[in-house]
């Protein structure tokens, strides 16, 4: 097993968004403003709730000008981070995990089992923590990760998602052409 880095800072995430971290045609993160975390604090192919690996990331919220774009419009006078952006962060991390393992192809979210929201990310939240626990990783012709995810706002769990599905697709694959 090749030695893999256990964490990544913001500059690393931007390099991933430009296609530089895992190489051309492989997993990329979106660039700002759609990149929904500032750093990956830990990543491992063992451990986590299911023993199949875990990735943990953080986002500084309070006073972060990179988040003004959605707080200004969602909703005027009642700012809240759209829940779909928190869900997207969990998909982003699941795809990053596959790239980190060395699997080739471009990542695409393929679905989610169930999502529950029990709170909100508002501008006064100091820090969001995302936790993705891998349940199954397939690295054959099909490259697929299935995971459960949690979003915590200042330490309190406010989103959960089960059966997040992300696949990696190479140029000739049907989903890559769609």
Automatic annotation (TrEMBL):
GO-annotated biological processes: fatty acid biosynthetic process
Which InterPro entries does its entry note?
FabA (IPR010083), FabA_FabZ (IPR013114), HotDog_dom_sf (IPR029069)
Give its localization: Cytoplasm
Q: Which GO terms describe its cellular component?
A: cytoplasm
The main place the protein resides is cytoplasm
Its EC number is 4.2.1.59
Q: Which Pfam families match?
A: FabA
Alphabetically ordered keywords of this record: Cytoplasm, Fatty acid biosynthesis, Fatty acid metabolism, Isomerase, Lipid biosynthesis, Lipid metabolism, Lyase
Q: Which GO terms describe its molecular function?
A: (3R)-hydroxyacyl-[acyl-carrier-protein] dehydratase activity; isomerase activity
Q: Superkingdom of the source?
A: Bacteria
- Keyword Lipid metabolism present in the record's keywords: the answer is yes
Q: Does the keyword Cell inner membrane apply?
A: no
Q: Which reaction does it catalyse?
A: a (3R)-hydroxyacyl-[ACP] = a (2E)-enoyl-[ACP] + H2O
Q: In which pathway does it act?
A: Lipid metabolism; fatty acid biosynthesis
The entry describes its oligomerization and partners as:
Homodimer.
- Report the sequence similarity comment from the record: Belongs to the thioester dehydratase family. FabA subfamily.
What is the protein's given name? Answer: 3-hydroxyacyl-[acyl-carrier-protein] dehydratase FabA
Q: Which organism is it from?
A: Candidatus Filomicrobium marinum
Gene it is expressed from: fabA
